[in-house]
């Protein structure tokens, strides 16, 4: 994973509460310590990345991580703040604020078309998937902006499974939306030439191209890898299996499954531990016999007796998980 200087993207996802953030943060620390300028981005509404690094990275901009010898920057995307911005944008200057907001996300033409079609009132409430759209706009910035060129590893700590799948399918959805709006524009412009001059095609094409670029990035097996994180319980393994099937459908490369919080072997006769260990063994067997998961490289991460918080703890975890 650390070989080569070509930029690589790693997306970590799975059920809520399995330790995705600790795994993502420890992977980012590992990359940075191996000489890769690294960014770790969290699209999870729970501010776990700040907790993981024991510093506030929730401002929506890149923050240098304390205690590192090499460049590591963290960024938490705040969906609630984005929703607030969206609401206030839709109430300013007769809805043109929405366009400015969408513009800043690189989706300006989409908003403009909607606005011209007098659909602005639909934008008063943030659309479903806005969180994911903002995450995607950040991905676009990383891909396109000159100031991010130096970063060779970008790690995404994604929100729980449902959000992640929406994030992956959103470029297709927006692509279709842009297509529909273009079709609608043609109908309207044939009816009235006054509107015809209002609509330009360049921006639309740019939006569509951007979406295609992001969609291709998610599916580019040379530069992007999705890592599923789970814990050894029947419920978590079942969800991981469904996630893998969905990712396969989206043509997203998955090579590794991290099984977190595995009880280490013990010679004590603690009854609770023995029952728990048997339970975990059943879940681990399930993985080995699951048609979606059995071909993945399975990495077991032990349950540790300290809270993984701050760079030294993340370095310790990274040495165990990312051997």
UniProtKB/TrEMBL annotation:
It holds the Pfam family ArsA_ATPase. Belongs to the arsA ATPase family. GO terms for molecular function: ATP binding; ATP hydrolysis activity. Keywords: ATP-binding, Hydrolase, Nucleotide-binding, Transit peptide. It catalyses: ATP + H2O = ADP + phosphate + H(+). Residues 8-319 form the ArsA/GET3 Anion-transporting ATPase-like domain. It comes from Spirodela intermedia. This is ArsA/GET3 Anion-transporting ATPase-like domain-containing protein. InterPro entries: ArsA/GET3_ATPase-like (IPR025723), ATPase_ArsA/GET3 (IPR016300), P-loop_NTPase (IPR027417). CDD domains: ArsA. SUPFAM superfamilies: P-loop containing nucleoside triphosphate hydrolases. GO terms for biological process: tail-anchored membrane protein insertion into ER membrane. GO terms for cellular component: GET complex.
